Amino acid sequence: MMLAALALVAIVTQDSAALRAAPRESAQQQAVLWQGDSLEVRGEKMDYLQVYDHRRERGGYIRASQVRTQSLEPKDAPDLLAVVRFLRDTPGAEALGISYAAAYLKAAPAEAIGPEPFDALGTMADRLARRASVKRGKTDDTVLSAHLEVASSYGIGMQGFERDGRIQLCYNGEAFRRVLAMKSTDEQRARAALALTRPECVDPNITPTDRNNLDTWRAEILDRVQLTELPEYEKNRLRLRRASVWASIAFEHARQHQPAQEAANRALQELAGVNPEDIAEPDASAYTDAAVRVAASRWAAETEPATGSGLAVISTPGESGETCVALTDAKHDQKNPLAKRCTYGLVWKASASVNAQQTALALAVQPLDSWRELWVFHQGEKGWIVDILPPAANTPDVGYLEFAGWVPGSAKMLAVREARVDGRFKRSFEVIRMDTMDVEKQADNPRSLSLFYRWQDPAWKRGTLSMRR
Amino acid sequence: MSERLESLLQGLLALLTTTISAIGAALASLGRTARRAWVLLLAIALIGGSGYALFTHPPFKTLEPGEVGIRTNKLTGSATEIKEGLVVVIPGLHELRRYSLLDQVYRPVRSSKANGEAPFQSIEGLSLGVDLTIRYTIDPTRLAAIAQKLPTDINGEIVEPMVQGVIYKSFTRYSVRDIFSTKRGEIQKEIENELKPKLAADGIILRGVQMGQVDLPPEYRQGMEKLLAEELESEKMKYTLELKSKQVQQTELEAEADKVKREKSAEAAGNEQIIAAKAQEEAMKHVLPFKQKQIEQRQYEAEAEKVSRIKTAEGSAEARRIEASGEADSRHKLADVEAYRLETIGKVTSAQLERDGALISKNPLLIQKTMADKLSDKISVIIAPPPANGGFIGSALLGGAQTGSAQGQQASATAPQETQQ
């Protein structure tokens, strides 16, 4: 809007540039300008330009060396685009880059504008948001907030969510939406889709219905990108994102009593399509995150087995949204179960595993889309009891605890645990004592535990995602 | 039926009787007047004539379905009602009249057009034609009684005059508009009500009066049509308004349904949120005991660490104490040894001094020699005035001399300065 009225603008290229009342270094300072600020050029005096700052609604003088004067004629558009290309991948120069991109969009004729400036605009805005969300020293604070304000003056919208006690800033993705709507290259589309579907930019306080709609939209956006022409590491990024999105969709479908098998299979396929050799270093954490999310809801892909005459679980609806699990055997039916417990989570009956003595049963229950618990029904001194093992002793976040086998002749079981604790993923293969539910032994690798290596369940080994490379 | 058969038998019997009696009479007469041939010929002619007459005018008639016949005996004047089927009608003796019991229709054609021969007049005096249809039938129950009185042309002689008399009168009481559109039914009813008793009096039942097309005078028709069109518009508007009102109602209902749907959906979404929150809370609840356990374990660990540290500190203190005690003992021993050593040394020194004293007393110059020996490696030159008394040169330095202490002091103050130089 501001640029519309101008044919010649001065773009501030340095941070903390002073707008002075007179063309002298000693003159009073009217405002502090930051890189990317646009000023209307009204005259020139000595080494100073007489300018007017429309954003702050004040005029003054600025040293000519601190600004670049740009003409907004169509013939100058390629020059502006060249600067945008240069600044696109320059960290710290996002505000300046956004300013040049805006100037290009103003100068270039409408028919000449392709997806490239929008891609650059989105990339810079996204990087600025990420820069603002990570912990930095205090010296950067002033500059960062000023850059955010400059970006905001060009219509770059930011959304903020509270996550782990601090605000996470996210770009609203308007430029990327334009890239997707235009005839863009696969790489541009991939960048746009990845930026629009960032998991950390999903509002944690969103309602389940909205979350479902959002995930469906995210899956659709990710499916719009053709993978064939992309480099392998980019393909992996998209597959990882798709896998985690489809895992969430599978959980949501199962929660709404809709068929979830297709979505869960899709998540598994996408994860299986990832080539671990070609994962870029910054994506290693995303790979683990996606794998844990898919593993948490992997039982949605399995069909429910028919219950036999031995130890089995039967689920019945309890109160609204509640599922009650009853443990039955040949002598105890659903009305007189051995044990019963109700939950608001999803009960994966396909995961039920009974030991050879018929004295214990392990069951996977998933209360959140990325958090799966292990329920262990076992015979105690006073009858059957159920113990619930969460993946980690922190706030439910991303993680799963999976049954991996029974140790014959002893009250021990094998389990694998993978969860994010304090921002880091930890995976451990454990031998658990069933009487106390304490971890007797644990290791990073199943080969390191002889009990684990010897007695692991073949069915678990066939389906688990914890043995990935 | 039996009545009809009886009548048929009677007729046949009468015919047979008549024929036999005639033949018998002829034969008797033949027998009596056999000789008279002309009589015979006459008889033959008579029989032939009768046969011909019977052939040409058979004594039977057939009544069609829906017809009823009244047979009148000309001799007796009695009338018999006969239903459909075969009926004996002896020519000369009987006369049969047929009446149809089916519905008859009368249409006054002359008054069906506004510009026809005899149009109707409305209350305004305008000519108009109405296509009327009067449906009637003869009352079968009264037919036998009134058959004698009924004219041959019932339609033309009874129905038409009566209808004319009623309908003209009726139409003059209404306006063209009433006749044309609004009061058709009423007019029809009125005509029926008036006509019915009149026709009934003549044994005719009026089935109904139907009013068909109304032919208006052309000018009036135009005006009327315009008016009607306006009325139609007004009616249309009425219906349009009704439709609009219904549409409004429908929109209201739809909005209501939508509202309910949204409410339900919001409720469902709310429920989902509650369930999700409960699931999260439940998951947290499951975590808490482990967290508690973790904290307890850490406490135990801390306790154990504390105990271990205390024990270590105690051990360390004890060790130090033992060490200190050992050290003290050791020092004590060392001190004893030192004391013994010092004592021994003292004794040795005393003995040495004693020996030295004895030696010096014996040789006094030994002191000077010793001093000179001791100073020899530190002082290379000593500039000092020779003692006036011709004594030892170093006595002024030693201060040991009894005399001239001030001089001695001065010399000692100067000497180091010299030596330093």
Automatic annotation (TrEMBL), chain A:
Keyword Signal: yes
Domain of life: Bacteria
Signal peptide: 1-17
Keywords: Signal
Name of the protein: SH3b domain-containing protein
Lineage of source species: Bacteria, Pseudomonadati, Pseudomonadota, Betaproteobacteria, Burkholderiales
From TrEMBL, chain B:
Membrane spanning stretches: 12-30, 37-55
Residue ranges of domain Band in the record: 58-228
Compartments, as annotated in UniProt: Membrane
GO cellular component, one term: membrane
Composition bias type Low complexity, residue spans: 395-415
Any Gene Ontology biological process: proteolysis
Keywords: Coiled coil, Hydrolase, Membrane, Protease, Transmembrane, Transmembrane helix
Chief location bin: membrane
Short name of any one Pfam family annotated for the protein: Band_7
Stretch list, region Disordered: 395-421
Membrane as UniProt keyword: yes
Source taxon at top rank: Bacteria
GO molecular function: peptidase activity
Membrane topology qualifier: Single-pass membrane protein
InterPro entries tied to this protein: Band_7, Band_7/SPFH_dom_sf, Prohibitin
Coiled coil (UniProt feature): 229-263
PANTHER family to which the protein is assigned, alphabetical: PROHIBITIN, PROHIBITIN 1
Official protein name in the record: Membrane protease subunit
Annotated organism of origin: Collimonas arenae
